[in-house]
Automatic annotation (TrEMBL):
Keyword Cell membrane carried by entry: yes
Keyword Hydrolase assigned: no
Biological source species: Tabrizicola oligotrophica
Localization in the cell: Cell membrane
Official protein name in the record: Biotin transporter
Lineage, broadest ranks: Bacteria, Pseudomonadati, Pseudomonadota, Alphaproteobacteria, Rhodobacterales
UniProt keywords, alphabetically: Cell membrane, Membrane, Transmembrane, Transmembrane helix, Transport
TM segment ranges: 6-26, 38-70, 76-100, 112-137, 143-169
Pfam families in the record: BioY
Family: Belongs to the BioY family.
Domain of life per record: Bacteria
One of the record's GO cellular component terms: plasma membrane
Amino acid sequence: MERNLTHIALFAAMIAALGLIPRFEIVPGIGITAQSMGVMLCGTILGARLGGLAAGLFVLVLLLGLPIWAGGVGGVGLLATGKVGFIVGFPFAAFVTGWMMSRLPASIPVSAFFASVIGGMGVLYAFGIPGMAWGLGKTLNEALVISLSFIPGDLVKAVLTAAITAAVAKARPAALLSRG
Protein backbone atom coordinates (compact mmCIF):
# COMPACT_ATOMS: atom_id res chain seq x y z
CA MET A 1 0.00 0.00 0.00
CA GLU A 2 2.71 2.51 1.02
CA ARG A 3 4.75 1.55 -2.04
CA ASN A 4 1.79 2.28 -4.33
CA LEU A 5 1.16 5.64 -2.66
CA THR A 6 4.84 6.49 -3.04
CA HIS A 7 4.77 5.63 -6.74
CA ILE A 8 1.62 7.71 -7.26
CA ALA A 9 3.12 10.73 -5.47
CA LEU A 10 6.49 10.44 -7.23
CA PHE A 11 4.95 10.24 -10.68
CA ALA A 12 2.57 13.14 -9.96
CA ALA A 13 5.65 15.13 -8.91
CA MET A 14 7.43 14.06 -12.11
CA ILE A 15 4.57 15.46 -14.22
CA ALA A 16 4.87 18.72 -12.28
CA ALA A 17 8.67 18.79 -12.68
CA LEU A 18 8.34 18.28 -16.44
CA GLY A 19 6.32 21.51 -16.46
CA LEU A 20 9.54 23.36 -15.61
CA ILE A 21 10.89 22.63 -19.09
CA PRO A 22 10.06 25.68 -21.21
CA ARG A 23 7.07 25.25 -23.47
CA PHE A 24 6.71 26.18 -27.09
CA GLU A 25 3.47 28.10 -27.67
CA ILE A 26 1.41 27.18 -30.72
CA VAL A 27 -1.29 29.79 -30.08
CA PRO A 28 -1.42 32.15 -27.10
CA GLY A 29 -2.03 30.03 -24.02
CA ILE A 30 -1.66 26.65 -25.77
CA GLY A 31 1.68 25.04 -26.38
CA ILE A 32 3.81 21.93 -26.44
CA THR A 33 5.03 20.93 -22.98
CA ALA A 34 6.94 17.97 -21.56
CA GLN A 35 4.14 17.24 -19.08
CA SER A 36 2.28 14.95 -21.46
CA MET A 37 5.41 12.76 -21.57
CA GLY A 38 5.04 12.40 -17.81
CA VAL A 39 1.49 11.17 -18.38
CA MET A 40 2.80 8.64 -20.93
CA LEU A 41 5.44 7.45 -18.44
CA CYS A 42 2.81 7.08 -15.72
CA GLY A 43 1.02 4.57 -17.90
CA THR A 44 3.98 2.71 -19.38
CA ILE A 45 5.75 2.27 -16.05
CA LEU A 46 3.04 2.27 -13.37
CA GLY A 47 0.24 0.68 -15.37
CA ALA A 48 -3.38 1.69 -15.81
CA ARG A 49 -4.62 2.03 -12.24
CA LEU A 50 -1.58 3.57 -10.56
CA GLY A 51 -0.72 5.67 -13.62
CA GLY A 52 -4.25 7.06 -13.79
CA LEU A 53 -4.17 7.80 -10.07
CA ALA A 54 -0.79 9.58 -10.37
CA ALA A 55 -2.09 11.79 -13.19
CA GLY A 56 -5.30 12.34 -11.21
CA LEU A 57 -3.32 13.44 -8.16
CA PHE A 58 -1.41 15.90 -10.35
CA VAL A 59 -4.72 17.34 -11.63
CA LEU A 60 -6.16 17.58 -8.11
CA VAL A 61 -3.13 19.44 -6.77
CA LEU A 62 -3.12 21.67 -9.86
CA LEU A 63 -6.78 22.60 -9.45
CA LEU A 64 -6.26 23.24 -5.73
CA GLY A 65 -4.00 26.09 -6.82
CA LEU A 66 -0.42 24.90 -6.92
CA PRO A 67 1.31 26.53 -9.91
CA ILE A 68 2.48 23.23 -11.41
CA TRP A 69 1.12 23.55 -14.95
CA ALA A 70 3.73 24.45 -17.55
CA GLY A 71 4.34 28.17 -17.30
CA GLY A 72 3.82 28.17 -13.52
CA VAL A 73 0.05 28.46 -13.30
CA GLY A 74 -2.56 26.58 -11.29
CA GLY A 75 -6.06 26.81 -9.90
CA VAL A 76 -9.61 26.11 -11.00
CA GLY A 77 -9.46 29.08 -13.36
CA LEU A 78 -7.57 26.81 -15.77
CA LEU A 79 -10.88 25.01 -16.38
CA ALA A 80 -12.09 28.13 -18.23
CA THR A 81 -9.19 28.10 -20.70
CA GLY A 82 -8.20 26.17 -23.80
CA LYS A 83 -6.17 23.88 -21.51
CA VAL A 84 -9.27 22.35 -19.87
CA GLY A 85 -9.51 19.28 -22.10
CA PHE A 86 -5.85 18.40 -21.68
CA ILE A 87 -6.06 18.83 -17.90
CA VAL A 88 -9.18 16.68 -17.59
CA GLY A 89 -7.72 14.17 -20.04
CA PHE A 90 -4.47 13.51 -18.17
CA PRO A 91 -5.79 10.72 -15.89
CA PHE A 92 -7.69 9.06 -18.74
CA ALA A 93 -4.65 9.21 -21.02
CA ALA A 94 -2.41 7.68 -18.34
CA PHE A 95 -4.97 4.95 -17.64
CA VAL A 96 -5.38 3.98 -21.30
CA THR A 97 -1.62 4.10 -21.86
CA GLY A 98 -1.11 1.70 -18.96
CA TRP A 99 -3.97 -0.53 -20.07
CA MET A 100 -2.52 -0.74 -23.58
CA MET A 101 0.99 -1.37 -22.20
CA SER A 102 -0.25 -4.35 -20.22
CA ARG A 103 -1.97 -5.88 -23.25
CA LEU A 104 0.35 -5.25 -26.18
CA PRO A 105 2.39 -8.40 -26.80
CA ALA A 106 5.35 -6.69 -28.49
CA SER A 107 8.71 -5.89 -26.92
CA ILE A 108 8.74 -3.30 -24.17
CA PRO A 109 9.97 -0.38 -26.32
CA VAL A 110 7.52 -1.15 -29.14
CA SER A 111 4.63 -1.63 -26.71
CA ALA A 112 5.53 1.56 -24.83
CA PHE A 113 5.66 3.55 -28.06
CA PHE A 114 2.28 2.35 -29.33
CA ALA A 115 0.66 2.62 -25.88
CA SER A 116 1.93 6.21 -25.69
CA VAL A 117 0.61 7.06 -29.14
CA ILE A 118 -2.81 5.53 -28.44
CA GLY A 119 -3.25 6.68 -24.84
CA GLY A 120 -0.87 9.59 -24.42
CA MET A 121 -1.74 11.17 -27.75
CA GLY A 122 -5.04 9.73 -29.01
CA VAL A 123 -6.95 9.84 -25.74
CA LEU A 124 -5.40 13.14 -24.71
CA TYR A 125 -6.33 14.72 -28.05
CA ALA A 126 -9.87 13.32 -27.71
CA PHE A 127 -10.24 15.41 -24.55
CA GLY A 128 -7.93 18.28 -25.50
CA ILE A 129 -9.34 19.24 -28.90
CA PRO A 130 -12.94 19.82 -27.74
CA GLY A 131 -11.63 21.60 -24.63
CA MET A 132 -9.41 23.80 -26.77
CA ALA A 133 -12.31 24.62 -29.08
CA TRP A 134 -14.52 25.56 -26.14
CA GLY A 135 -11.84 27.45 -24.17
CA LEU A 136 -10.53 29.41 -27.15
CA GLY A 137 -13.89 30.02 -28.79
CA LYS A 138 -12.87 28.06 -31.90
CA THR A 139 -14.71 25.45 -33.95
CA LEU A 140 -13.74 21.80 -33.55
CA ASN A 141 -12.14 21.93 -36.99
CA GLU A 142 -10.05 24.97 -36.05
CA ALA A 143 -8.93 23.29 -32.83
CA LEU A 144 -8.11 20.12 -34.76
CA VAL A 145 -5.92 22.10 -37.17
CA ILE A 146 -4.12 23.76 -34.25
CA SER A 147 -3.56 20.38 -32.60
CA LEU A 148 -1.92 18.98 -35.75
CA SER A 149 1.11 21.08 -34.83
CA PHE A 150 1.44 19.05 -31.60
CA ILE A 151 1.93 15.73 -33.41
CA PRO A 152 5.68 15.94 -34.19
CA GLY A 153 6.57 16.90 -30.62
CA ASP A 154 4.25 14.27 -29.17
CA LEU A 155 5.78 11.58 -31.38
CA VAL A 156 9.21 12.55 -30.04
CA LYS A 157 7.81 12.25 -26.51
CA ALA A 158 6.42 8.79 -27.35
CA VAL A 159 9.87 7.69 -28.61
CA LEU A 160 11.54 9.07 -25.46
CA THR A 161 8.91 7.35 -23.30
CA ALA A 162 9.63 4.04 -25.06
CA ALA A 163 13.38 4.46 -24.50
CA ILE A 164 12.98 5.43 -20.83
CA THR A 165 10.54 2.59 -20.19
CA ALA A 166 12.91 0.09 -21.82
CA ALA A 167 15.81 1.44 -19.74
CA VAL A 168 13.78 1.09 -16.53
CA ALA A 169 12.79 -2.46 -17.51
CA LYS A 170 16.41 -3.38 -18.14
CA ALA A 171 17.81 -1.76 -15.00
CA ARG A 172 15.02 -2.72 -12.59
CA PRO A 173 12.55 -5.17 -14.14
CA ALA A 174 10.40 -5.26 -10.99
CA ALA A 175 9.87 -1.48 -11.28
CA LEU A 176 7.92 -1.90 -14.51
CA LEU A 177 4.55 -2.34 -12.83
CA SER A 178 2.65 -2.09 -16.12
CA ARG A 179 3.89 -5.55 -17.12
CA GLY A 180 3.63 -7.13 -13.68
